[in-house]
Amino acid sequence: MSSVVTGTDRYLAEFETLERRGADRTPAWLAALRRSAIDRFAERGFPTTRDEDWRYTNLGPLVATPFRVAGAVAPRGLSGEMVDRSAIGAGAWPRLVFVDGRYAPEHSSRQTLPGGARLSSLAEAMDTDGGLVEGHLARHARWDDNVFAALSTAFVQDGAFLHVPPETTIPAPIELLLLTTVPGMLASPRILVVAGPYSRFTVVERYIGLTDEACFANAVTEIVVGPGASVDHYVLQEQGASTFRVATVHAALERDSMFSTCEATFGARLARTTLTVRFGGEGGRGVLTGLYVTSGRQHVDHHVTVDHAVPRCSSQQLYKGVLDGSARAVFNGRVIVRPDAQKTDATQTNKHLLLSDGVEVDSKPQLEIFADDVKCTHGAAEGQLAPEAIFYLRSRGLDETAARRLLTLGFVREVVDRIAVEPIRSYLDRALEARLGTGHASKEMP
Amino acid sequence: MLSIRDLSVGVEGKTILRHLNLQVRAGEVHAVMGPNGSGKSTLAQALAGHPAYTVTGGEVTYLGQDLLAMSPEDRARAGLFLAFQYPIEIPGVSNAAFLKAAINELRAARGLDELDAMDVLELLHEKLELVEMDRSFLNRPVNEGFSGGEKKRNEILQMAVLAPTLAILDETDSGLDIDALKIVAGGVNRLRRPDNAIILVTHYQRILQYVEPDHVHVLVDGHIVKSAGKELALELERKGYDWIRDEVATV
Q: Which pLDDT value is given to residue B238?
């Protein structure tokens, strides 16, 4: 009987295989980076619930599953028509498509972007924009204390690269469509976005799982928002029902910049997001929004850190979750206001709507304030649909199901209404209607 | 139209209404008056089917049907409307979306086609004028952030839009300034037709200056102790409720 290697050792072995195969093509700096990252991963290993950051999220099933590292595999059951249908921007938006972690030029539509902005695969950018890639890749999302960022860095093969030069506005949102078709794989999509000073644009990450068998998606996104730049970022996640998804997003904001990020979580059995927004220059503004709709035994975990390292920045967090079945939500919202960061304005709101008695929520604000002239507020609430509101609607002729549906959709409306991009808003309306239309959260696809 | 016989209702194990009787015929306006805690709101909520109110005895027939056996939504679909004393805030649901849903539920119950968004909007704009509400109210979440007067007007808007057969107004006049009171009264008077009926539950006689009732009932300790014509309201206004208690006690 052959034993299947799982856990940390499995990925170390996969790493050595990969190194032997592709060593000649890899630039020296990247080879060195990968080696350091895998060493760090080997040192740390997968976290357990004994780690404070993973106290409520058990990775046991993920660690026990023997995933292969995504390489050249043939996509399963994917047609151009399916890709088009999955894209939010239909044919109108520039888009890069990744299938099982690999760039798929035949499905992509790069268009010519204004001002010489560059949208390409990461592999390609290593040739064309080597300096920028080397200067930023894995320099922001810390992999020394984030094992999954280390794992991603060790296995970085492909991903998306977007560079928008100074003073350049890109009117249409840029869509990154990441599809999973083959079960049993670890995909490590890596996204690097560099916004030049006073540039403005929107970037959308859309994750779709076309298989309901086990997958492991470990995504890392690094976004550098230059002085005066304005970047709107969306993550729309509909991974397959048995997918383990771990995402790391790091935004580095320079002076007077604006960054908004909105993550909508519908899929995956386990979805963990580690989001960090760091203010590195005065006058920055961050808007962080999350919406999750879960049912069955889904587990959604948001670990958000907003690091006010400099004065006069504002951050606003709004996270709302709807839980049904035996779903579980974890929210940890950490706000650090460092000693110099006077005039910080930080708010945090986390609300959960509980549609069944079997759900569980662990929501924890973590404010670490070391400056005195600051304004920081936080609020958390959880509750069921109000019986008085249900009766009010029934007294107007709506049956209980219709009443619950309207109230549940009303709960998430606040998030949807904040979204400036119409096709994303209407996508969310459809997705929410499909999932909450019965007054209960279900896994139905829109 | 509505026949209440020997109705007893409790809430949280406490009996509020005791053997109450009331007959309402089509075309009539009834005022149910009484001091605080006499059971006025309990009567209104029980007729609308609030699940927290338990009927412990008696029967209610509405348009020949056993009202107490009907769900709250079926009562609404059969043309019964309750204007709430304390209208509920519904965050995230616009007034327009809420009213569109309600309109179409009631239409479906009558076998009518669904109205589309444009038709609904046209209807709402027309009714908004009657209650002197700005169109921006349609895009605001139901009752959220509304002033007391705006909430009450919003109830009258709903009543105008849903065109009930039997409307029960639970202290809709309380806390309104004179202009808002006139608007509410105007809404009630417009609903007044030979085939409709209205029950005005109120503490004060004030609204009855603008809506003339056919019958005035005084509710004390959970049952109706006196019924008469509109002149009873004026007498109550002059003398308060205590003389009724005394009168009942001596009988």
A: 84
Rounded to whole angstroms, the Cα distance separating A396 from A233 reads 40
What contacts B140, CB < 8 A, 6 or more positions away? B94, B95, B146
Return the residue in A385, A395, A433 with the most chain B beta carbons within 10 A, the one to mutate for interface testing: A395
Helix, coil or strand: residue A221: strand
Element (H, E) at A296: none
pLDDT per position as a tens digit, A285-333: 999 999 999 999 999 999 999 999 999 999 999 999 999 999 999 999 9
For every residue of A115-168, DSSP letters joined together read: GG-EEEEHHHHHHHSHHHHHHHTTTSS--SS-HHHHHHHHT---EEEEEE-TT-
CA dist A220 to A147, A153, A158, Å? 12, 9, 11
Give the pLDDT confidence score for residue A1 in this predicted structure: 42
Task: Give the pLDDT band (50/70/90) at residue B60.
Answer: very high
Ordered domains of chain B (ranges, CATH) = 2-180+198-250 (3.40.50.300)
> Which one-letter amino acid corresponds to residue A227?
P
Task: Please check the confidence at residue A2 and state whether its pLDDT lies above 60.
Answer: no
- B77: chain A residues, CB-CB within 8 Å: 397
Residue A29, CB half-sphere, CA atoms under 13 Å: how many?
Answer: 11
The answer on pLDDT for A428 being more than 90 is yes
User: If residue A423 lies in a helix (H) or strand (E), which one and from where to where?
Assistant: helix A422-436
Q: What mean pLDDT do residues A404-430 have?
A: 94
pTM tops 0.95, yes or no: no
Which residues from B are below 8 Å from A389, CB to CB?
88-90
Q: pLDDT tens-digit profile of A360-391?
A: 999 999 999 999 999 999 999 999 999 999 99
Domain locations in chain A as residue ranges: 7-281
Chain A residues in contact with B88 (beta carbon < 8 A): 386, 388-389, 391-392
Compute the distance between CA of residue B79 and CA of residue B90 in angstroms, rounded to an integer.
Answer: 23
Mean of pLDDT values over A232-249: 97
Looking at residue B205, its pLDDT comes to: 85
Determine the Cα–Cα distance for residues B37 and B216; give it in Å rounded to an integer. Answer: 18
Average pLDDT, integer, range A402-424:
94
Amino acid at A386: A
The secondary structure element, H or E, covering residue A245 is strand A243-253
CA distance B227 to chain A (A): 28
DSSP codes joined into one string, chain B: -EEEEEEEEEETTEEEEEEEEEEE-TT-EEEEE--TTSSHHHHHHHHHT-TTEEEEEEEEEETTEEGGGS-HHHHHHTTEEEE-SSPPPEEEEEHHHHHHHHHHHHHHHTTPPPPPHHHHHHHHHHHHHHTT--GGGGGSEETTT--HHHHHHHHHHHHHHH--SEEEEESTTTT--HHHHHHHHHHHHHH--TT-EEEEEES-SGGGGTS--SEEEEEETTEEEEEE-THHHHHHHHH-SHHHHHHHHH-
Residues above pLDDT 90, as percent of chain B: 75
Decide if B93 and A386 are in contact by the 8 Å CB cutoff.
Answer: no
Q: Whose CA is closest to A176, among A166, A156, A162, A194?
A: A162
> How high is the ipTM of this complex?
0.96
Pairing of strands A258-265, A230-238: parallel
- Residues of A within 8 A of B110 (CB-CB) are none
Q: Which residues of B touch A (CB under 8 A)?
A: 48-52, 71-73, 75-77, 81-82, 84, 87-93, 97-98, 101-102, 105-106, 109, 141, 158, 162
Predicted pLDDT at A7: 86
